[in-house]
Amino acid sequence: MSEDEPITVSERVRSVPPSGIRRFFELAEEMDDVVSLGVGEPDFTAPWRARQAAIESLERGQTSYTANRGKRELREAIAADCEARYGLDYDPDDEVLVTAGASEAIDLAFRALVDPGDTVAVAQPSYVSYVPGVVFADGEVLSVPTRAEDEFVLTPEALSSVGAEGADLLVMCYPNNPTGATMDREQLAEVAAFAREHDLVVLSDEIYSELTYEGEHTSIATLPGMRERTVVFNGFSKAYAMTGLRLGYALGPASAIGAMNRVHQYTMLSAPTTAQHAALTAIEECGDEVVEMRRQYDRRRQFVLARFEEMGIDCFEATGAFYVFPECPWDDTDAFAEALLDAESVAMVPGDAFGAGGEDHLRVSYATGFDDLRTAMDRIERFVE
Ligand code: PMP
């Protein structure tokens, strides 16, 4: 601290580097004619009826806070949706919490459930928020790499270090960002058995649950003995293309949701009211739009996978979210991504930005219009040739 610079940033915050994804966006922003396969958000607009519900709520003057946990009607709709989809029964009063994006739910879970020094195992490659979230909660991160050979599924072998280190929590995300991997019921059953045996609490980020292309999504909370030790994160950003409305939710046992609400009621008060109106209509009336967006993502997924195969680039068959995770043709993924951007104006994100296991790969998002996607794949082909 000095007189010129009286503000000292906390050590905790200084220890977290800026997001590895952002650097490529900044480079891409300075260039013309860039096709970005780097984005992690839908290129679609939220369904019209959801937007209309938001507009109408404003016309009615509904600009106040809601209940801390979210509008009861919305919590009921979320619980009903979960029951219909998975047969999982959550009490809207004390087992559902509406948050400002799944992001807030993730942050709340760490702050409410992690004591200083607790070990949080994070299955990687993973979405970039988990590790900083654990650090901000003064927890210790144990990274659990998954492997390309296993199609980035979390296996009992991958989990062996978790038992040895005596972790308290496990964070996992399927369908996965950045790999596009999904896990079926049998694979999840092995993780569930491990969690029960080692008394692990599971934080399951299922925000891409609606974007599953082969078979139905299975929530790990549906496996025997898991509902009571799992907090599920989900939200409206991906399935309903509502990223900017900032609305998500957490489902879990009353003890965990109550603790998360304790933090939420002081730090957020309530999730955005206008967005809650949009979300209620989305969940109740916009299922057809979700089906149509999923159809379009699937068409793009198959196109991108086929093009990588034609180019001779190894890419496992991702079956969820809107990412594929090809192996990088060069040893240095950063150098490849920069050279591709420079030569062909196509942006993608080096896999190491997502932690252990991603080092030799690139994240390619197909949340981009089909024409742009075709242009990008043509350019990549020219570049690798
Ligand atoms: N989890 C994952 C795996 C994500 O990819 C994202 C968004 N990129 C989020 C959570 C955050 O979503 P939200 O917009 O609901 O905060």
TrEMBL record:
Q: What class of enzyme is it?
A: transferase
Give the enzyme's EC designation.
Answer: 2.6.1.-
Out of the domains of life, which is the source?
Archaea
Keywords, comma-separated and alphabetical: Aminotransferase, Pyridoxal phosphate, Transferase
Pfam families on file: Aminotran_1_2
Q: Which GO terms describe its molecular function?
A: transaminase activity
Name any cofactors this protein relies on. Answer: pyridoxal 5'-phosphate
Q: Does the keyword Transferase apply?
A: yes
Domain Aminotransferase class I/classII large, residue spans: 33-379
- Supply the Gene3D superfamilies for this chain: Aspartate Aminotransferase, domain 1, Type I PLP-dependent aspartate aminotransferase-like (Major domain)
Does the record bear Iron in its keywords? no
Q: How does it assemble?
A: Homodimer.
Give the UniProt family note: Belongs to the class-I pyridoxal-phosphate-dependent aminotransferase family.
Q: Please report the name of this protein according to its UniProt entry.
A: Aminotransferase
Organism listed in the record: Halomarina ordinaria
What taxonomic ancestry is recorded? Archaea, Methanobacteriati, Methanobacteriota, Stenosarchaea group, Halobacteria
